[in-house]
Write a structure and sequence with these properties.
D-Maltodextrin-Binding Protein, domain 2, single chain, 2 domains, binds calcium ion, five-stranded mixed beta sheet, Fructose-1,6-Bisphosphatase, Chain A, domain 1, binds D-MYO-inositol-1-phosphate, alpha+beta
């Protein structure tokens, strides 16, 4: 199967999961840790996505937020069945299904679907990124003063929360405005299609950003870690931007 065909499969799985999530009735919620929840629907969504992907590609491995799986493989699907569980369980409309395909250790396909807005972001390595089938590109915003910056709070890990709060005043004072959506996958896509200019967060997990990474970078964006020479793909400490603003934003995080 080509990467383009994998992308079409990811889209099919994401739309099917989205349709199921939008139809849900009452569901059980469990607390994973103090500020971290999982619902019955997260598990149902992950099972549906896994079945859809692996029945079409039995040779591939799977790694999902709720059930884990392969940490390496020649072909591996990396899935967050609901990115933004806190939003979803309270009825906020921003939550996303995030499906990435990794080939020989490199992220190659990204699909992020937001059922609440019916926006489907799709990207294949080397082939660009689209929103609902139309090509997208990062913004041309060149100065922080004009920038909308998305900030995740890192609120589940005390040292990340402290570091985020420490940089917040300088960031807020020097940009146009700050947003907190509650879904990292969607944050990356907002930078990818130019409605926002940067997104930063500490302590993400691979399944939160794998698909958004492909969408962002294929739309011309840049993705690094917070510290000099830090690889955000490895650490989950993510600075993303349209590229033009990257070092100026990073400067404000020091
Ligand atoms: C969370 C969301 C949120 C981000 C957290 C993530 P989840 O994912 O992406 O925006 O701030 O760091 O863990 O738990 O809803 O899948
Ligand atoms: Ca999740």
């Amino acid at each position: 199967m080509t990467l383009r065909e994998k992308a079409a499969l990811a889209e099919r799985a994401a739309r099917a999961a989205g349709a199921m999530l939008e139809r849900h009735g009452a569901f059980k919620v469990k607390r994973k840790s103090e500020n971290d929840f999982v619902t019955e629907m997260d598990f149902k969504s992950e099972a549906l996505i896994r079945d859809t992907l692996l029945s079409a590609c039995p040779e591939d491995e799977f790694f999902g937020e709720e059930t884990g799986g392969a940490t390496t493989a020649p072909g591996r699907w990396i899935v967050d069945p609901i990115d933004g569980t806190t939003n979803f369980m309270r009825g906020h409309r921003l939550y996303a299904i995030s499906i990435a395909y990794e080939q020989d250790g490199a992220l190659a396909v990204g699909c992020v679907y937001c059922p609440g807005t019916d926006e489907l972001f799709l990207a294949v390595r080397g082939e660009g990124a689209t929103l609902n089938g139309r090509p997208i590109h990062v913004s041309g915003t060149a100065v922080p003063r004009d920038a909308i910056v998305h900030l995740g709070f890192g609120h589940r890990i005390p040292k990340n929360m402290e570091r985020t709060l420490a940089v917040f005043p300088a960031l807020l004072a020097s940009v146009s405005d700050v947003r907190r959506t509650g879904t990292a996958a969607y944050d990356l896509c907002c930078v990818a299609d130019g409605r926002s200019d940067s997104y930063v967060e500490l302590g993400l997990n691979l399944y939160d950003y794998a698909a958004g990474y492909v969408v962002l970078t294929e739309a011309g964006g840049k993705f690094t870690g917070w510290d000099d020479d830090e690889d955000g793909l490895k650490t989950g400490n993510v600075v993303s931007s349209n590229g033009l603003l990257h070092e100026a934003i990073r400067e404000r995080l020091r």
